[in-house]
Amino acid sequence: MLRKLLKYEFKATGRLMLPLLIALLAISGLLAVCVRISENTASAVVHFVTGTLGFLYVMAILAIGAVVLVAVVYRFYKNLLTDEGYLMFTLPAGVHGIVCSKLIVAIIWLVAAFVDIVLSLLVLAAPLDLGLGMELIRGLGMIFRELETVGVGWYEVLAFALELLMLVLLGLAGSCLVFYTALALGHSFSNHKMLLSVGFYFAIGFVTQVVLVLLLVGLGTSLDGMQFNFVYTLRNALNLGHATLLGICLAELLYAGILYFGTTFTLKRRLNLP
Question: Model-level pTM?
Answer without folding.
Answer: 0.83
